Amino acid sequence: MRRLWWMLLIASILVPAFLSGVSGKRQQQNLIAFTKLWGYAKNFYPGDEAQDIDWDKLSVYGSAQVIDSPDKKALANKLDELFSPLLPDLVLYTRSHQIGSSKEPTKGRKKSFWQHRGMNGSSSSLFGSQRTNRPFKVPRNQQYPFSWASICPQLPDSISFVPELRISFKVKQRGEESDSIFVSVSVSEEYFTNTFEVRQWQEKSIVLSPKEGVYNSIWMMFAYFEELLVDDLKVEVLEQDTWREVYYNDFENDTPGSLPWDLSVNIDPYRGILSSEVDAFVQTDNDNNVLCLSKAEPGKPHTQGIVNKIFMEELPWGERLDIELLSGLRANFPMVLECDLEHTYPIADSLKLKKLKEKLEPIDLSDRSSKSIWLAGLIKYWTDLNFFYPYFEYNICDWDKELGSSLKAVLKVKTFAEYKRELLKLSAKTQDGHANLEDPSRNKLIAGFGVNHISGKWVVTKVLDESLDLPTGSELTHMNDRSFKKIMAECRSLYFSSNPETTELRLFRAYQRDYPDSVATFRFITPDKRKINKQVKFGDYNSHYLKIRDEKQIVYPDSIVYLNLYRITDEEITALMPQLLSAKGIILDLRLYPHVSSDILKHFLSKPDTWGSSIAKRYIKPHQELPRLDEDKPTWSLEPEEPHLRAKLIALSSRDSQSYCEVFLSIIKHNELGTIIGQPSAGANGNVVYSNLPGNLKVQWTCIFVRNPDKSRFFTLGVSPDIQVTKTLEDAVLGRDPELEQALQLIRE
Fold first, then answer.
1. What is the reported pTM?
2. Average pLDDT, integer, range 322-334
3. Architecture of the domain spanning 553-748
4. What superfamily does domain 449-539 belong to in CATH?
5. What residues pair up with 321 in beta bridges, in sequence order?
6. Residues ≥6 apart with Cβ < 8 Å to 242
7. How far apart are CA 691 and CA 696, in angstroms?
8. At what angle do helices 416-428 and 399-412 cross, to 10 degrees?
9. What are phi and psi of 739, to 5 degrees?
10. Would you call 552 exposed, middle or buried from its count of C-beta atoms within 10 A (0-12, 13-18, 19+)?
11. Residue ranges per domain, the chain?
12. Which fold has domain 133-307?
């Protein structure tokens, strides 16, 4: 009987798995293979067909197609079915396979490959991803009341750094809009601007001297014209008192109506895509081909440009990518394709591509009930960070392993809320203080009090909801009869902090916003040992006010000035300048994100600031960072400014001092402008990028690599205070500010 019972139990476990056809482990492996091919193809295959597909929808559809493949052969067939319409030269193989070398490029065709500076996903000029030598439609920007266009000649690699450049060209304006045009030419940090009257052909020559050691790209801007003709564009470099030609285009080899190959037109190669009100094309003028820049016709939605390279490095002809999808299953495809103005080559099967698009069309990316949507969101998030998160070089986690663990978890979850928790757990593995998951449906309300972890207790440190009648210093023990210790332990697995002991307020806020109700019952022990329950209605409170002092500024009788940089404005600081000039000491509260510029620090400098080492990593191959340009050049450059402030400077810091706060603190530390009091900063500085995930979620993360001036690690370590101060339980009970008190004491000594 016992044997029969065990057989029935085993059958109850195995039969469902048999009926589904595939075990959970097999499903996990199938999804890993799909994720890797999806990510590598999306970011490193330059074919036109691959840009003509909705990759988010493909991840939804594709994950559902491959998940139940019973073996590697069936999986390979499914992957080929999904990706061959986009990658016609994709090779999938399970055994040793010799990939034939690429033939010599066809005469007249150019080279197309991906270049990445960080990841697209932000308005920041630091990031950009482009395919080289591909025409491009740029949205028009109606904010400009005048016509303008940009031209960027493609320079050879041999002159990536040059001492002196001469740019010459012929130019003529047609139309009645203006009698003159504006011309601006920039190379690195050197600029030339002028206004010309060019009703007839005129030859212009401009000489610039770029700063040594700065990456050079030429950016020419023309503005205020109706139609502008440009011809005989030439770039020369000075070598041993002799000018050597490095670029020339008379446009005679370009087809009228097309774009020139060796110019980036209407696109700034260093800063990414620019909007423009001008169309650019080659035109015949008196039997000569010229570049025509023409003011766009009203109502036309786009202007067209062409991308050559956004930086100098490039891939050689024939470069292919070979990747292991699973043990015993590999994928191989070219990272460099031939192209002309019409297409990349080879051209994929148009019928296959059409059928794939038809299958993707009905997919609703806003659907939150589908597990395929959840898997697609995870796939995209993991992939974006896999290629572009800058801090994996510190070996903070095994990101490949995390993919398997996260897929396994998402396969088991039953609700969208559980799925979000798995995304948060994965996000926390990055140790990124900027990491965030935004959900438009998320509760925006929080309780009107904040807590911090002090002496092993969760203690109320500030109360905004006066109706609560809740003393500061009270210990929070339960929320809805659940131990608050357990709640915080759960939160720590979802949100990273460089010091969890001082960031309970952030975790508490996040927990509340995922809480399905707007009312909760909290249990406290007051400083006089009373046990009280409070039913709290959540409200639309600014959670930052739970962390920072209420005062914008305090002018003490003994000539000490306190400035709360979270609350005060630049204009208010300027108005206080007379008090600052006569002050004995100035305290800058940087325990929360400043809402002012760093200009106030200029008045403490006696020499130019040289701090800053932030890098947008560059890639033409996956996981192979290119040499870091300008890594020794200061990222934030401040010049001294009068009046000079001679007061003793104190800066207050905390673990909530993050990002822009850390710019201030780093400048103060590096230039020895004053004393920093408090706790180490968060160690999360640098520009962020954003990515929209299926399921109507948005994630953000740091995409800039920041180091200290000596190239040591800044990430998660932050800026160390000169004097470390930690809030005590007594401070919380009495409402004291120990950091500020220490600062006042130091100035008064």
1. 0.84
2. 95
3. Alpha-Beta Complex (3.90)
4. PDZ domain (2.30.42.10)
5. 333
6. none
7. 11
8. 170
9. -65, -45
10. middle
11. 21-98+322-388+397-428, 133-307, 449-539, 553-748
12. Jelly Rolls (2.60.120)
